[in-house]
Write a structure and sequence with these properties.
The complex is a heterodimer.
Chain A (H helix, E strand, L loop, with lengths): L3 E4 L2 E4 L5 E7 L6 E7 L3 E10 L2 E4 L6 E7 L2 E6 L8 E8 L9 E3 L3 E5 L1
Parallel strand pairs in A: 2-11
Antiparallel strand pairs in A: 1-3, 3-8, 4-5, 4-9, 5-6, 7-8, 9-10, 9-11
Chain B lengths: L4 E3 L2 E5 L4 E6 L6 E7 L5 E8 L4 E4 L2 E6 L4 E6 L8 E10 L2 E4 L3 E6 L1
The chains are: A mainly beta, B mainly beta.
């Protein structure tokens, strides 16, 4: 798993509540990503980071924010969870110095259910 | 919109047979990658093929890329029950994005 830990692994929350998912890497990789996976859609990029305090939006960023105050941690926050955000969330890192020009290594995911 | 559409959506074969999965993409790419996902786990990288390459091998895996047709194929030879998983292609769209397809669910029966 290239030293990637996602927490929590499972979470059930109510509509309208804030939720923060954490991705922690034990190595010093620059690029980190958050994806969501839904049936029939594959993986879609939410946000990514290219360094401490450097982040950018992906394909489906609405309703999500991220923060990266330390190299090893990349947080994904749902400010006010909605049922459409029920999904499996994956964190990934690039193990080489480039963004998508190199393989991604993924964590094992967080299954989020918004009721 | 989706970059990288896999075909077929599901494939069921017997152990020992070959499995072929196809991927099409919509725009010019820098590279195309194939990933595997076992149930309940994250994706695992299999092969990266660059736009100037036509074929790559890794063990029992063979990937081809046809940029004129904007398509790629993944061949798994002499399949095993342990190859049962979902397989995804991902096209490097630009410096800031990589788009995944919806995947092919492969079942290898012992």
């Amino acid at each position: 798993d290239a030293g990637i830990t996602q927490s929590p692994r499972h979470k059930v929350t109510e509509t309208g509540t804030p939720v923060t998912l954490r991705c922690h890497q034990t190595e010093n990789h620059r690029y980190m990503y958050w994806y969501r996976q839904d049936p029939g859609h594959g993986l879609r990029l939410i946000h990514y980071s290219y360094g401490v305090k450097d982040t950018d939006k992906g394909e489906v960023s609405d309703g999500y924010s991220v923060s990266r105050s330390k190299t090893e941690d990349f947080l994904l926050t749902l400010e006010s969870a909605t049922s459409s955000q029920t999904s499996v969330y994956f964190c990934a890192i690039s193990v080489s110095d480039g963004p998508f020009n190199s393989p991604l290594h993924f964590g094992n995911g967080t299954r989020l259910t918004v009721t | 919109s989706q970059q990288g559409e896999e075909d077929p959506q599901a494939l069921s074969i017997q152990e020992g047979e070959n499995a072929t999965m196809n991927c099409s993409y919509k725009t010019s790419i820098n590279n195309l990658q194939w990933y595997r996902q076992n149930s309940g786990r994250g994706l695992v990288h299999l092969i990266l093929i660059r736009s100037n390459e036509r074929e790559k091998h890794s063990g029992r895996l063979r990937v081809t890329l046809d940029t004129s047709k904007k398509s790629s194929s993944l061949l798994i030879t002499a399949s095993r029950a342990a190859d049962t998983a979902s397989y995804f292609c991902a096209s490097f769209y630009n410096n800031n994005d990589m788009r995944f397809g919806a995947g092919t669910r492969l079942t290898v029966k012992p």
